[in-house]
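Appendix C: a fully annotated inverse folding record. The material below is reproduced so that readers can follow the format used throughout the book. The structure is listed first as tokens, followed by the designed sequence.
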């Protein structure tokens, strides 16, 4: 009588899934895809830089002879008041580790800054941005 001593064990499905996620994290393309998917789930649609320019500028009403545009400023050098709720949203986004850069974008008429700044963040490893927070600067009202 022969006893088969070779043991073939299959790891449980949950272990395989965890292992696959760990492998994906080490592959830059897979990690980028995961960051993009997570950013979309948590923050909604992602936009290109041109789309952010356009969306922010369009928050201003059209005025004859005035050009609507957006001014970008790194969040760490922004000197306007950022409401507490926007700061909390910013901190949560920083802690999430999905983003590489944060910017405050303010709608303007040519060079005249207006109200209603936005905080946008660039997804790490991608040329797309998520809107983190918006607020009405004149009334300190969050959106």
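Designed amino acids, in order:
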């Amino acid at each position: 009588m022969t006893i088969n001593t070779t043991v073939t064990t299959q790891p449980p499905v949950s272990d395989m899934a965890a292992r696959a996620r760990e492998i994906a994290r080490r592959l830059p393309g897979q990690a980028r895809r995961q960051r993009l998917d997570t950013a979309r789930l948590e923050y909604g649609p992602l936009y290109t830089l041109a789309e952010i320019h356009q969306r922010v500028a369009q928050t201003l009403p059209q005025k004859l002879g005035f050009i609507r545009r957006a001014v970008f400023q790194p969040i760490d050098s922004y000197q306007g008041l950022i409401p507490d709720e926007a700061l909390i949203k910013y901190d949560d986004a920083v802690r999430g580790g999905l983003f590489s850069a944060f910017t405050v974008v303010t709608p303007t008429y040519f060079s005249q800054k207006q109200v209603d700044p936005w905080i946008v963040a660039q997804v790490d490893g991608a040329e797309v941005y998520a809107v983190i927070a918006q607020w009405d600067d004149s009334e300190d009202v969050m959106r």
